Write the structure tokens for this entry.
Amino acid sequence: MKPKIADYKNEPIDEVVTLNQPQKAFDYDNGEKILEVKHLKQYFRFGRGYLKAVHDVSFDVYKGEVFGLVGESGCGKTTTGRSIIKLYRITSGDVIFKGVRIAAGTRWNEKEIKYTKIRLNQDLKLLKEQEQQELTNANPNSIQQIKDKYAALRKEKIEPAEKIISEQREAIKNAHHDDRHCNDDIAKEAVKAVKEKYKHLFANGRPLSNSEEYQNYKKELKEAKQQSITRSIQMIFQDPIASLNPRMTIRNIIAEGLIIRGVKDDEFIDREVKRVLELVGLLPEHANRYPHEFSGGQRQRIGIARAIIMNPELIIADEPVSALDVSIQAQVINLLNDLRNELGLTILFIAHNLSVVKYFCDRIAVMYYGELMEVATSDELFKHPLHPYTKSLLSAVPHPDPNVERGRKRIVYHPEKDHDYSKQGPSLHEVSPGHFVRCNDEELTRYMNEIKDKE
Ligand SMILES: Nc1ncnc2c1ncn2[C@@H]1O[C@H](COP(=O)(O)OP(=O)(O)O)[C@@H](O)[C@H]1O
Ligand SMILES: [Mg+2]
């Protein structure tokens, strides 16, 4: 079932999505990678085979940036987001958060073991047949000699195969270990960072326990010990109606994460709920109401409050504005942008529409059928779109000027016609610094010239 871009209502959003605080150019040279996704594959069992929801996706997100993941419905955006927060056991690849591997797939290691065993069995079977043959034709004196020769030949096959198998088993073991222990590792790293930050306090023996700095140190250390994936990475969902339990008060909805974490202090919870309600532009008295009393935009604010109460470092916002009216979309995007600046958040922003992400995202990755087609800064992508799929997505963006809009032509992407991959297949290439396109060598040369011509 092929998704169509035309399934979406396209409304000119450009005129309404203007940010209150204009985006500064992100400093990638001094940036710190907070999230690394490496060759992520997520397959789902489907009948007898697999549905390759995410086929091979790699990208890095820097601390403090807004990274957009854009593509049509069904291309694997949500699956990518859910794989990062470990809702699935990933098929293969690695997800690294703040230097700690939080998810690792083992499918290829398992395959390597399987095929090594199959190859070994075939080799041994062949040797056995050859040995039998030689033995039947041999004179009795040379029987032992033949047997020794074949024992040596068998050893030659078995030893390297066993080495491969044990290496692969080790890799699988490590992957399972990281999968299970990543929360401890994240807490450990966080504790280390706090100790490093306050090292000077301990330079001359124990510090005064009533000093303000020491109190801060204790507070930050306690926070660090509780760090985990489920706290540090929060997700905001598309449908603010479906994602809020109608029978719970706003207070309890927002506080759910804290309560699950074991916080029992009601006064603390009330204070935190009030704090985040204010941060998202709602009122403290809203805490006692129920979801149905709020508009779509307000519900999405509640969803955001629920995420930021956990003090996350990374927010995965999965089409947070797709269900909202255009004017409300702009408000919610502005809110996210303010929060990002105030709280130093990093945001992975998922959208099916390029116009929504244009002003908000520092970089954009364009996804098509489980693979990335193009990655570039937002400016660069809109100035020099190279991949025909990106061009097709761009041509779907309505123009705010009615005169231009009337002449807008939709470009349709035809993978079979637009590429000739009969001689060489595509992979992600860096066409200009920081601008990556999925292409083969012939296309790469063409794209490089295309950029040169435009300058
Ligand atoms: N839990 C699941 N089990 C089986 N198939 C799934 C599951 N989740 C998603 N898919 C399939 O994976 C593909 C990608 O889905 P999704 O990540 O939701 O796309 P997007 O968010 O880009 O619309 C779709 O074909 C979808 O039907
Ligand atoms: Mg989705």
Notes: Residues 109-196 form one domain. The longest strand covers residues 33-46. Residues 77-78, 318-319 surround magnesium ion (ligand 2) (CB under 6 Å). Residues 6 and 156 are 60 Å apart (CA to CA).
